[in-house]
Amino acid sequence: MLISPISVFIEVYVDTPLCNGCGDCVDQCSMGVFRIYEEKAEPVQSQACIGCFKCLSFCPVNAIQTRWIMRA
Ligand code: SF4
Ligand code: SF4
Prior knowledge:
The protein is of the alpha+beta class and 72 residues long.
């Protein structure tokens, strides 16, 4: 039986209605994952995330969430 390797990635996403557009996630993320678009944060480079969780701890409204993605 051939077993394929599985890679696991962390992905950040924004609960948009909660976001107040403060930009703290943009300032704190050293990997440039976020941008502000129409006064809301959006991840534009999710694949660059290194899982440091800094954005989660700085977001004043807990709008940033994470999920694990598995790829074969
Ligand atoms: S967890 Fe770290 S690297 Fe990933 S988006 Fe947040 S601040 Fe950036
Ligand atoms: S830190 Fe939170 S509230 Fe501020 S722009 Fe980022 S997601 Fe929105």
